[in-house]
Design brief:
The complex is a heterodimer of chains A (61) and B (371). Helix content of chain A is 0%, strand content 41%. Chain A has no helices and five strands. Chain B is α/β, with parallel strands linked by helices and 371 residues long. Chain B has helices at residues 10-23, 37-45, 48-51, 71-81, 104-109, 120-129, 146-159, 174-182, 195-201, 208-213, 224-240, 259-268, 299-302, 318-322, 354-360; strands at residues 30-34, 56-60, 86-90, 114-116, 134-141, 164-170, 190-194, 217-220, 245-247, 269-271, 274-277, 281-284, 288-290. Classes of the chains: A mainly beta (61), B alpha/beta (371).
């Protein structure tokens, strides 16, 4: 999900899914989250920051 | 879509499948176990097994959190839901899991206030909106989901919300893997590590598999090319005589895990001495309970819980399916008495369950020639 806006009071952010749905996501497990980032969200909590594509291993053998 | 489309490229998939065919020894049968329900779903959604040589067999382990919940825990949840003033909340997958006396949805039909939520934070919102009710979150899941429950408890504590508790059914993946590896019933050649669990715990906890059991591991992601590449990595290790933990899912899995998540887990939870897994029986230190500092948020402390063990229906072979001993279609009731609409066992309930994945993607039967 893409981070739209931050709520620093509760370590959360409003995030937008690929289908356009916006929901509150807890971001306490990820340091220094910024607007525009893409986060891996599970059960309403960001559990990982998705690497920039330059860091992504090529899906080839 | 970024991060998705490039991992669904058919041409690269065909090339990977060709590399896999080239690397396997004819006449040798390979059994590779995936231990995440998301992987099982990926395999059948994208037909991954059809791209593999017939002598490469994918075995589905106990990686679906809904599937491993024993019937007695469902009955315990229903008992809490029937208490005066209680709102029980749970993920949608849990609603139809059969207990000894019906499912949550059956109990809801009989008047219990049971509500589906998408996250524990939704349950906390319900508690905030209903200060005169007791709101219980029926928490399930592996290490992927447990941090979300932990953060929600910390937030409830910070906000001073006292009408919110958690019935904790969170489990951990390593103890059942040890139990499977110690089982004489099952010969496995390698493992696909659970990518999303590893975003939290890292790949390191799986080092015992090569170190003590001599089996290679590749932590894999959930797009079809992720999974195919992870299978290739396991087979390449076998071909080269190597045995280690490799990480295919590097775009989100740090080898040592997420330190913030691990810290929150150790703050809020402690290990249970033992926990019952459907099909696997009691496994010591394989599940979480709330740490003493958070007992005020423990539903099993606040409410009377029967805690009765309930035997699975005799016709249901979820246990054998979860251990990878039989394939879903080999179960006596698969697709006949047991369907997603009328599940007898848990594996037919969740979309991540092996039986539901087979059934929903048309794999009611399979007959492949072994070359």
């Amino acid at each position: 999900m893409r981070v739209m806006s931050m709520n620093s009071q509760f370590d959360s952010a409003m995030c937008k899914a690929a289908d356009g749905e916006v929901q509150e996501v807890m971001t306490g497990l990820i340091l220094n989250v910024t607007e525009g980032e893409i986060l891996l969200v599970h059960a309403g909590t960001a559990i990982a920051r998705v690497s920039s594509m330059s860091d992504v291993q090529s899906p080839t053998a | 879509m970024k991060f998705v489309d490039e991992f669904r490229d058919g041409a690269i998939g065909a090339r990977l499948a060709s590399e896999i065919r080239a690397i396997v020894e004819p006449g040798r049968h390979y059994k590779i176990m995936e231990v995440c329900g998301g992987h099982t779903h990926t395999i059948y959604r994208y037909g991954i097994d059809d791209l593999l040589p017939a002598n490469v067999e994918l075995v589905h382990g106990p990686g679906c959190p809904v599937c491993v919940i024993p019937m007695g825990r469902v009955d315990d949840g229903i008992a809490i839901a029937r208490e005066e003033g209680v709102i029980l909340t749970c993920f949608g997958d849990m609603m139809r899991v059969p207990g000894g006396n019906g499912s949550f949805i059956d109990a809801k039909a009989k008047g219990a206030d049971i509500r589906m939520v998408y996250s524990p934070l939704d349950a906390l919102r319900i508690a905030r909106e209903n200060p005169h009710r007791q709101v219980v979150f029926f928490a399930i899941g592996f290490e992927t989901t447990a941090p979300s429950t932990a953060l929600t408890i910390l937030r409830a504590s910070a906000e001073g919300i006292r009408n919110f508790t958690v019935m904790c059914n969170h489990v951990t993946i390593v103890p059942p893997l040890r139990a499977l590896l110690d089982s004489p019933d099952l010969r496995l050649d390698g493992f696909i590590g659970p990518g999303h669990v590893c975003t939290v715990v890292g790949a390191k906890p799986f080092e015992f598999i090569p170190a003590h059991y001599g089996r290679p591991v590749a932590v894999g992601g959930f797009e079809p090319l992720d999974f195919l590449q992870a299978v290739y990595m396991v087979l390449r290790q076998l071909a080269e005589g190597r045995c280690e933990v490799e990480n295919q899912y590097t775009r989100v899995v740090p080898y040592d895990g997420n330190p913030q998540a691990l810290k929150v887990l150790s703050q809020v939870f402690e290990l249970r001495s033992h926990f019952e897994w459907r099909g696997l029986g009691f496994i010591s230190q394989s599940a979480l309970q709330l740490a003493p500092a958070f007992r005020d948020f423990d539903a099993e402390v606040r409410f009377a819980v029967p805690g009765v063990r309930v035997a699975d229906p005799k016709a249901c072979q979820c246990g054998e399916v979860l251990k990878g001993v039989i394939k879903p279609w080999e179960c006596k009731v698969f697709g006949t008495a047991c369907t997603p609409e009328h599940p007898i066992g848990t594996c037919m309930v969740s979309s991540e369950g092996a039986c539901a994945a087979y059934y929903n993607f048309g794999r009611v039967a399979r007959d492949r020639a072994v070359v």
